[in-house]
Amino acid sequence: MKKLTIALVAGASAFAAVSAMAGHHEGNKEDHMAKMEAKLEAKFAEVDANADGNVSGDEFMAYKMAEAQKEWDSWAAHAGDDTMVSLDEAKAAMAAKMAEKHAKMKEHHGAMEEKSE
Question: Domain boundaries in the chain?
Fold first, then answer.
């Protein structure tokens, strides 16, 4: 019973979070779904390296390895002369990434405010 209660609370929390996030964006559910489908189609096209309309395991893994390489490159930019990343260097990489995300969010929200005026 305790597990069921926890599962129900977790599910309700997830639903509430998704609903709150969805409410942040203007438009109806159909508009939101259309945007999400467009994002999926764009991502699928990125992963489908040979453009045959299907994604193989090799294509998926190659895509993920390229993502991992980008992540490593962002960490390695903070590495010392030893080409190894210490915890402090990883923290510096994380702080830089968070600052970049914060700047993008601020820019996005500024554009949304201008749009609504």
Answer: 54-117
